[in-house]
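Lecture notes, part 5. Sequence design as translation. It can be helpful to think of inverse folding as translation between two languages: the language of shapes and the language of residues. The source text, in structure tokens, appears below.
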């Protein structure tokens, strides 16, 4: 038996680091045991889980869904990966985890900074916005919200050749976006968004809006900045109730007036595994993003703001609940546990 630690949302608003045991001798034929090295906090989703607003997550439950670790044991028929392999996978915040080797995994043993690897999951989520869009080189793209998802969507839109505007009310996050390559930064709390966007685009507005906030009000407020025939991509997950004049919203979509295409973006729109019959899959996207990370086309290091031992988890989620802008890219270091 192995002593296992994990970060658990016990009840609404309460997170604890708890201990239990894991029986490594009970591995099924196709299962592997992974000892974690690092796992990444998904601030928006995990905060929603803790407050009971994420319907797929049941309390109490172990948080997290992106990790990297070393395979320490394998079932009799697990042949694809070997003991000693370092792999990325959709792992939870726990010291150990048993998974099926058929899950989407990537071998990353050659990567020097393994603490960057869990960011791949968030980048894959962000990529769904670019995949769903019709962004072409030279287009103006406005990415609203510069949390992890928005920062990654900004970088991926630039890789498409877009001229990218970003907006956020945090000066720190706007500065980080500029460091990561944003062409223009806007603060809706201080700037006249309409005037600034009109000046940048020479009066044409943006071709594509990517919302990474999940705020229904923010989405509605920013539709006015999309050009006739443009598109709005809903990357963030709307969760909070919001009342608005739906006729005004429908007018943006109606073909007679603004003709804006509103599209939802989510990683689940694509199959997990790659086959000859699909162009895009979670597996292929992760492989591409890993190559971008290896070659420096996609930057992660500036987004890693906290590298913390798991014992700090309750403190982390208190900061997130308060909206602390300094808590952005949070990685738990299980090697220091």
């Amino acid at each position: 038996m192995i002593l296992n630690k994990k970060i658990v949302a016990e009840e609404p608003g309460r997170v604890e680091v708890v201990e239990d045991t894991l029986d490594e001798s009970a591995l099924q034929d196709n299962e592997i045991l992974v000892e974690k090295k690092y796992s990444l906090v998904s601030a928006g989703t995990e905060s929603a889980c803790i407050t009971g607003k994420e319907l797929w997550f049941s309390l109490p439950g172990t948080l997290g869904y992106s990790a990297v670790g070393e395979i320490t044991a394998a079932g009799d028929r697990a042949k694809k990966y070997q003991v000693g392999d370092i792999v990325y996978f959709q792992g939870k915040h726990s010291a150990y985890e048993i998974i099926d080797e058929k899950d989407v995994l990537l071998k990353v043993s050659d990567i020097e900074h393994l603490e960057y690897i869990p960011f791949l999951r968030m980048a894959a989520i962000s990529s769904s916005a670019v995949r769903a869009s019709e962004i072409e080189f030279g287009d103006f793209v406005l990415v609203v919200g510069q949390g992890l998802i928005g920062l990654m969507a900004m970088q991926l839109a630039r890789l498409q050749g877009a001229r990218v505007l970003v907006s956020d009310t945090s000066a720190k996050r706007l500065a980080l976006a500029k460091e990561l390559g944003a062409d223009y930064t806007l603060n809706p709390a201080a700037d006249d968004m309409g005037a600034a966007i009109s000046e940048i685009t020479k009066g044409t507005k943006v071709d594509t809006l990517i919302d990474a906030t999940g705020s229904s009000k923010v989405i509605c407020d920013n539709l006015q900045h999309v050009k006739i025939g443009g598109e709005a991509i809903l990357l963030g997950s709307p969760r909070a109730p919001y009342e608005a004049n739906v006729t005004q919203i429908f007018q943006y979509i109606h073909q007679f007036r603004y003709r804006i295409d509103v599209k939802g973006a989510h990683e689940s729109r694509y199959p997990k595994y790659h086959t000859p019959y699909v162009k895009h899959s979670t597996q292929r996207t992760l492989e591409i993003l890993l190559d971008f990370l290896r070659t420096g086309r996609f930057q992660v290091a500036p987004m890693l703001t906290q590298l913390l031992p798991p014992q700090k988890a309750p403190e982390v989620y208190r900061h997130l609940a308060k909206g602390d802008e300094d808590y952005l890219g949070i990685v738990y270091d299980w090697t220091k546990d």
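The translated text above is only one of many valid answers, since several sequences can fold into similar shapes. The chain has nine helices and 16 strands.
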